[in-house]
Amino acid sequence: MKRHLFLLAAAGLLASALTVSAKIADNIQRTQVGTIDVLTLTTGVKDVVTLRGTLPVGNVAAPESNPALARLTGSMLDKGTVTKDKFAIASQLESVGASLSFSVGNELLTISGKCLKKDVPLVISLIAEQLRRPAFSPEEFAKVQKRYVGALQRSLDDTDTRASDAFTRAVYPLGHPNRQPPTEELIAAIKGTTLDAVKAFHAEYYGPAHLRLILVGDVEATTVQAEVGQAFAGWTGGKEAARPGAVGGDLDAPRDQTVFMADKTNVSVVWGMATGLRYRDPEALALRVATNALGGGFAMRLMNTVRNEEGLTYGIYSFVSNDNISDGDWRIWANFSPELLEKGIASTRRQITKWHESGITAEELAQRKTDMAGSYKVGLSTTTGMANNIMNTLVRGYDVNFLDAYPEQSRKPSNSRPATNSGALEVGACLQAMVRCRAGPWSSRECRSSFVA
User: Which of 182, 262, 333, 336 has the lowest CB atom count within 10 Å?
Assistant: First the structure.
C-alpha cells in the first residue's frame, strides 16, 4: 500500500520523457470505442497512469426551473451503484492506492483518476459502473442535498464569492452558462428537487455519445481500448445540452453592484466586463498576454503599484476567465480594507487607464510571451499536467496538434495595446462601461464616491 502511494505521489515529479523536439500529437493514439472518444499517450513514467474524462452534463444542461439539477445528479455518482455501496468502491480504490472523482462545472462533468498501470482495468470499470448505474439511494440523496445547502450557506459569508457571483449576473444574460443564479434560488431549488427528477435527468443526458476519456503515462492503447469497450458495452444514449445563443455584455444592469456585509473586515471587488470572446478566438490570445502583464502575478503592474508601492491592498490580479467553451469575461479582482477602498479604487483606475492608453512595453510583451510558453512546457512535464492540457485543448475546440503549436502561437502577439474586436471588448476604453461589484462593509460616503468612474 505504501509503495502504491509513493509511486502515485512521485508521478507528479517525473518528466514525461517526450523530448522537447518530439511532437506530442504524433504520440497520441486516438480512437472511437463505440461512441466514446478515447485518447492515450504513453510517456516515460513507469507504472503510473493519470486519467481525465469529460461529459457535457454541466450546470448548463439543467433546466431553467431547476439550476441545481445537474450538480445534484453528478454528486450522486460516487455514492454507490446498484451493485456496490460507496464504502465498497472506496475500499477497492484505497486497496490499490488509486483515486477517482467526479466534479460538475458550468459546462462539463469532469472525471479525474490516477492509478498504477496494473489497475487501469479496475478504474475504467468503476468509472463505467458509476456513470451507468448509480444507486440513487434516498438516504445518500438527502445527505447530498444537506451538504450542498450547507456549502452554499457558508458561501453567503464569503466576500469573494458574493462579489464574483454578483458580477456574473451583471455581465451575462439569463441562460448563459457563466451566469450564476442567486444563492437563495439555488438553495430553494436543491430543497425542492426530488430523487425522481435526478433519475430522469440522468436517463435523459447521461450516455456514451459525448463521453471522452484521456489516459497518460505508462499506458497501452490497445489495453485501454479493450477495457473501455468491455466496461461500457451495451450502454447507449447521451445528450448534449443546447448552447445558448446570447453572449455576455450589453445588459441593462447597474454599473455598480454592491453586497453589504457589515460584519466583515475587508471588501472584495470584482471589476470588469464580458468579452464576447472564447479562448480560441483570434483576438483572445493578445488579450490574455496584455492582461497578464497588467496583473497576472506578484511582479506585474497592479501588484507592484497598488500593493507594493502604495500599500493599498492585500492582493490584486487581472485575468480572462470562463472562456473555454462559451464566451468569457475580463476582470480585476482585489481585496481592500474599508478605510483604503477609495484610494485603492482610484489607484487601480489609474493603472487600467495607463495600460489601455499606452499598452504594455516591449520588454513586458517579450517577457509575458516567454513566461507563458515556458509555463506551458513545464505543465507538460507531469502526467497530470499533460492529461489536463490534452483535455483543455479538446474542450476549447482545438485538435491535438494545438498541443505542439501553442508555444509558437503564444509568441505571435506583437501589438501591446489590449484592444480586441470592436464588437466585443475594448478594455479600459470606457471605464464607465465596466461593471464594478463589491462585497463587504462600507460607509454611505464610500458608497457614493468609490465607484464613480
Answer: 262
Q: Please tell me the class of the 256-360+416-449 domain.
A: alpha beta
Cα separation, 38 vs 32, in Å, equals: 6
Based on its alpha-carbon atoms, the radius of gyration of the chain, rounded to whole angstroms, reads 23
**Every domain of the chain and the residues it spans:** 2-231, 256-360+416-449
Compute the C-alpha angle 103/108/111, nearest 5°: 45
- Count Cβ atoms within 10 A of the Cβ of residue 61 and give its class: 0-12 exposed, 13-18 middle, 19 or more buried: buried
* Amino acid in position 54: T
Q: How far apart are CA 313 and CA 369, in angstroms?
A: 27
DSSP H helices, 156-295, are 159-171, 183-192, 195-205, 221-231, 284-295
Q: Do domains 2-231 and 256-360+416-449 have the same CATH topology?
A: yes
- How do residues 155-206 score in pLDDT, each as one tens digit? 999 999 999 999 999 999 988 999 999 999 999 999 999 999 999 999 999 9
* Residue at 36: amino acid letter: I
Count Cα atoms within 13 angstroms, Cβ side, for 51.
Answer: 30
User: What burial class does residue 203 get, using C-beta atoms within 10 Å of its C-beta: 0-12 exposed, 13-18 middle, 19+ buried?
Assistant: exposed
Query: What is the per-residue pLDDT across 279-321, written as a single tens digit (0 to 9) for each?
Result: 999 889 999 999 999 999 888 999 999 999 999 998 999 999 9
Residues 6 or more apart from 234 whose CB is under 8 A from it?
Answer: none
How many other C-beta atoms lie within 10 A of the C-beta of residue 51? Answer: 25
